[in-house]
Amino acid sequence: MKGSTEIKLILFHIFDTGIGFDAFQIGSIDFPSLKIKNAILLDKYFNKTGMENPYKSPRVLFLKNFPDKSLLLDEPEDIVTVSKADICLLPPLLKKATVSMGLWGVYRLNQKVYFLYDADILAGAV
Q1: Among 29, 32, 73, 77, which residue carries the largest CB count within 10 Å?
Q2: What backbone torsions phi and psi does residue 123 show, to the nearest 5 degrees?
C-alpha cells in the first residue's frame, strides 16, 4: 500500500543471525521438494561458523517478482506487522557498502536484532 505506515515482516534465524524480508516480496512459503530448482542456499551466504545444514525445518520462499528463484531458509520464526518508524534504516556509509546485498534496515523485537533484506536484490547477489 502506497503511503502505508506499516510493513509486514517475515523473520528468520540462520545460524545466530536474525534476518527478515518484506512479506510483500514473498509469493509463498512451502516445504522443499525435488521439484524445486534454483533454490538459493542462504546458509552458504551467512555461514561464518563452518557448521553444516543449519535447517531444523527447512522452507522455500518463492519470490513474487522472480518466480524462477527461491530462497531456502528455516521455518519462519515470526510474521509481524510493524510500524515503519520502528525500523532503523542504515546510515549512508553502511548503505553504500551493503546495497549490492540488499541489506536496507534493522529491526529489533524482544531483545533480538533482525537484519532486513530486499529479497529480490539478495536473490540476485548470491
Answers
A1: 73
A2: -60, -30
Where are the domains positioned within the chain? 6-125
State residue 75's pLDDT score.
86
User: Could you tell me which residues are beta bridge partners of residue 59?
Assistant: 73
d(CA 118, CA 54): 22
Question: Over the stretch 70-109, which tens digit does the pLDDT of each residue have?
Answer: 888 888 999 999 999 999 998 887 777 777 788 899 999 9
Taking the model in full, what pTM does it have? 0.82
Q: Three-class SS of residue 103?
A: strand
Give dist(CA 105, CA 110) in Å, integer: 17
Mapped onto helix, strand or coil, the DSSP state of residue 101 is: helix
